[in-house]
TrEMBL record, chains A, B:
It comes from the Eukaryota. It comes from Oxyruncus cristatus. Its EC number is 1.5.1.53. Belongs to the methylenetetrahydrofolate reductase family. This is Methylenetetrahydrofolate reductase (NADPH). The gene is Mthfr. It is an enzyme of class 1 (oxidoreductase).
């Protein structure tokens, strides 16, 4: 709790996420065939169950607190941070609630929407804070219903700051966090996991430490599942508090809130808000170095590590909750030094799983969105269920339209000037475009000395496995095979392989080689001649922006291109080349030329006309080499094509 | 192929609606995940479509006619013949209808039940004959409804022989085959494919050849889909007939009925019934050798081959229909000499697919019934649909009881005396039983000089792939690991592999090693200790007759043990080890000890008590080695077990 809200009412909360898993999924076996939906047993448990299991397994965990950003740009950055910090394997994250900031609205910076993004797009188990004072029952219920609809399953119930000095308790109103707990349980039964705040030194407004403990007990007995504490500076503060809680009959998990000191000013502000006293021994260290941010942060990390070690060593603490202040470095450093940061979290599936409960049975996706998973989730958010692990009716998958939300998200990732530096202030012909693609693959600076770190078709940096294909990709991009997606063939690597592995241990993963690119009609004409030689081996789909579609695939049948075989399980095939969704992807892939690239330039400018020309005349091609045990033949196909052209 | 596809019109396609035969048929892919229900495009096409496709592809075919047997024993033999002759790849078989023999009843020898067996248990496309004279509309409709219910989709509409000499046409009754054709079309719309009979020499009762052609045209115009002709002796008879048909506007397929002469008496009888004249040149050959069956058959084969060649060479004939007289040798010989017999028909799945329309999406089965597929089909015949390629709810698959029909089928396969010779007139202890199992595996004669060619758990002869494991199986059976099912591990053999291949060309098939056996509790105790060492690698289920169940498998999850990867397809996993159905199989497997074996002996006899003891005290064990790319470890598991016991 380090932001302004918490001061009064709460501390903050806790959360955790298993790096992208979570949300449940048990019954999927009933409507699943070759797939084992119960990939990760955690996924269909409640947060409180996950905590219990981790504790029983003696497996320490951590969670991360964030506050909603103030601007759309900051929101985009925060989402990237969720992805990066999610990779370390938090049990959950939580998002604070600021009544003044319209926290339940649909603005991209609201608490509700940030929590929604964390759950649905980043796949993080998430707790949404909610305060209750000065609000009507209807408001609160409305927020909770919305949270439930969005797939949120955990609430941190707080009182919040009374508006104005003259605040008085309202009869039948929400005067304390316990009223909110009771309201949630009465209106939503056991749907939400509920967290409440604990104050190791007692709430500053409480009559006494003992009185505050009694309030805490009331909150727990009203239905809270676990407690996250306000920050504190000495481990013995927490350990005493915990014993005192237990002594009066509080048996639920109590998670210490850890605040790694990151700077002089943020500490001062926090202390002021939370009305805490900084111990003299800490002040003594900090005052002399107050203008040296790095030194303070190093000290803060040191201090946090040593406090966390003491807490963990006590045997009473199983999880640690971090007040990140939306920053990455200090918390990540503490976690790494504690050995809690999962360097290589096992992926349950080769793509990031969404944490929305209704998506918990999802285990098949088209390969096309591999580099734009958030777009895929966004465009399929209206799917009410996943009876076959994907959609109910493959002939009518009902993809949502490409709308502003997602384009906003991508657009704001890099400012226009950055993009122009990467993709060219001025294009001189199609070859300038070839060069951009080539630089993205190689990582070499372009002719103006700028590295191309993103492309319109890629949310994420180049996948590690793409490096396996780097040399060939460079060669073909240089000649106008503009690749946007690819995977090497894999013939039975262990599921624990650091690059291509996924799924439970002891299994084997497989892939068919895949290559997707834009190319001119001249290249496509030659390619089609060449493909005749590979008719039985290579499946292709070739389509232009108008929808002219050339394929040798059996009518509408998906081709499985990634699958895994695991001990005691059915076969999992999480990625397919699906002819139906390819036509939806085609619209998106072509639109990105214009939306993301052409529009960087003036209308009627030569640069814009070059991109427009490509958009209007190039084809989008995908190729699958079905003979996964043999050497990938797709490079030979491309070589043959160029040979034919010469 | 270039198709202009509108993305929005994902209207999938090809609905080759089988008129009712399976409502939602095309959509099978919709409720399929890793499986390609459209394995064999033929399977959800109508017979008339199959004919058309074969003709378009220039692919000659044949079909086989049988009559219902007179006794239950003969029925069992005929079913075995269906399996053997089905292996040659007929496009369909047909079963004749004998009004005097109660053809629509539930007797195991009725036309209806024989056709039912051919479709459902032997997986053969089947035409049921039906005659109409002297029958009420209600009777006929009842027969047709029953046929539809049983999964029959094709009817040969015939008039039948009037009862008695004094037959007169009834007003509004069924006087001619055309009335039956009209009735079927009016009552069942386009559900059935309808075949009618053609007479190359004219029907013997017709006023003239021309008048008969007119009747035939009426039948076709009333809704018949194709014509099968009465037998004839000279190719020119058929070719003239066909031209005459075409001349009056009959355009549907006309299939010549071929009768290989197999003996003097059968020829005489047939000629008498059909009122045909045997050409003098044939009589001249046959009369002198009329007592030499082999010589007549050789001549008949010769004659049929030469006539068939002439017909095929004419370019007008695409399929040949054989009157088998329920015999195998002559027809098979003719077909082999014509090159129409498929020596190695490609298996669409590793097990025999049922031809019932509602089972056409079935593509997953438990491995347990691998040697008793007819029992599995029988016990699951009530399943109304296969939403996941098997059953709707894996936790409650609702297997039918083991009932008389199936036990009858197996029991009557070999008479009691035969079984006693194979399995022992008198058992002296459990070791005598070990010996029976061992002899079955090795093929060596037992101590009394008899080969053990079948076992209670095996419908079919030992599978070819079992030979790959023969030496190890012999060794373990000798020591009391009484194996009833096994498969070797396979790591990516071509789908065209003659032993383990299945599915479309160009694919790869895989298996996990599997071993299933009965063993004493002493062996099982040691085995369980050994299995601890293999905990992560080997999944096991161990159960006794009382249902005491020991397993390390994840709760209720099936383990895929056979799967295939094919060009342009989703993954197919046709065989699983399923913990739920294993408990149903357990009941069947234990019951077979008593029903098939113990009951051969007198009550209270020592032999019977030995089998009863095994039934009461042994365990049924199955083991899966999940590490399919490594050498099968199950033999090591068994060796370790015996070592521990010593």
């Amino acid at each position: 709790m380090v932001n302004e809200t918490q001061q009064s009412c709460s501390a903050s909360s806790s959360s955790r996420s298993d790096g992208g898993s979570s949300s449940g999924s048990e019954s999927s076996k009933d409507n699943s065939r070759c797939s084992t939906p119960v990939l990760d047993a955690d996924r269909h448990e409640r947060l409180r169950e996950k905590m219990r299991r981790r504790q029983e397994a003696g497996d320490k965990w951590f969670s991360l607190e964030f506050f909603p950003p103030r601007t759309a740009n900051a929101a985009v950055n925060l989402i990237s941070r969720f992805d990066r910090m999610g990779a370390g394997g938090p049990l959950f994250i939580d998002v604070t609630w600021h009544p003044a900031g319209d926290p339940g609205s649909d603005k991209e910076t609201s608490s509700m929407i940030i929590a929604n993004t964390a759950v649905n797009y980043c796949g993080l188990e998430t707790i949404l804070h909610m305060t209750c004072c000065n609000q009507t029952k209807d408001d609160i219920t409305g927020h909770l219903q919305k949270a439930k609809r969005l797939g949120l399953k955990n609430i941190m119930a707080l009182r919040g700051d009374p508006a104005g000095e003259e605040w008085e308790e309202e009869v039948d109103g929400f005067n304390h966090a316990v009223d909110l707990v009771k309201h949630i349980r009465s209106e939503f039964d056991d749907y939400f996991d509920i967290c409440v705040a604990g104050y190791p030194k007692g709430h500053p407004e409480a009559e006494s430490y003992e009185a505050d403990l009694k309030h805490l007990k009331e909150k727990v007995f009203a239905g809270a599942d676990f407690i996250i504490t306000q920050l504190f500076f000495r481990p013995e503060t927490f350990l005493k508090f915990m014993k005192d809680c237990q002594a009066i009959g509080i048996t639920c998990p109590i998670i210490p809130g850890i605040f790694p000191i990151q700077g002089y000013h943020s500490l001062r502000q926090l202390v002021k808000l939370s009305k805490l006293e900084v111990p003299q021994e800490i002040k003594d260290v900090i005052e002399p170095i107050k203008d040296n941010d790095a030194a303070i942060r190093n000290y803060g990390v040191e201090l946090a590590v040593s406090m966390c070690r003491e807490l963990l060593d006590s045997g009473m603490v199983h999880g640690l909750h971090f007040y990140t202040l939306n920053r990455e470095v200090a918390t990540t450093e503490v976690l790494k030094r504690l050995g809690l940061w999962k360097e290589d979290p096992r992926r349950p599936l080769p793509w990031a799983v969404s944490a929305h409960p209704k998506r918990r049975v999802e285990d098949v996706r088209p390969i096309f969105w591999a580099s734009r998973p958030k777009s895929y989730i966004y465009r399929t958010q209206e799917w009410d269920d996943f009876p076959n692990g994907r959609w109910g009716n493959s002939s009518s998958p009902a993809f949502g339209e490409l709308k502003d939300y997602y384009l906003f998200y991508l657009k704001s990732k890099s400012p226009r000037e950055e993009l122009l530096k990467m993709w060219g202030e001025e294009l001189t012909g199609e070859e300038s475009v070839f060069e951009v693609f080539t630089c993205y693959i190689t990582g070499e600076p372009n002719r103006n000395g700028h590295r191309v770190t993103c492309m319109p078709w890629n949310d994420d940096p180049l996948a590690t496995e793409t490096n396996l294909l780097k040399d060939q990709l460079e060669k073909v991009n240089r000649r106008g095979i503009l690749t946007i997606n690819s995977q090497p063939n894999i013939n039975g690597k262990p599921s624990t392989d650091p690059i291509v592995g996924w799924g439970p241990s002891g299994g084997y993963v497989f892939q068919k080689a895949y290559l997707e690119f834009f190319a001119s009609s001249e290249i496509v004409t030659a390619l089609l001649k060449v493909l005749k030689k590979y008719e039985l081996r290579v499946n292709y789909h070739i389509v232009n922006v108008k929808g002219q579609n050339i394929t040798n695939a059996p009518d509408l049948q998906p081709n499985a291109v990634t699958w895994g075989i695991f001990p005691g399980r059915e076969i999992i095939q999480p990625t397919v080349v699906d002819p139906v969704s390819f036509l939806y992807w085609k619209d998106e892939a072509f639109a990105l030329w214009i939306e993301q690239w052409a529009k960087l330039y003036e209308e009627e400018s030569p640069s814009r006309m070059i991109i427009q020309y490509i958009h209007d005349n190039y084809y989008l091609v995908n190729l699958v080499d079905n003979d996964f045990p043999l050497e990938n033949c797709l490079w030979q196909v491309v070589d043959d094509t160029f040979e034919l052209l010469n």
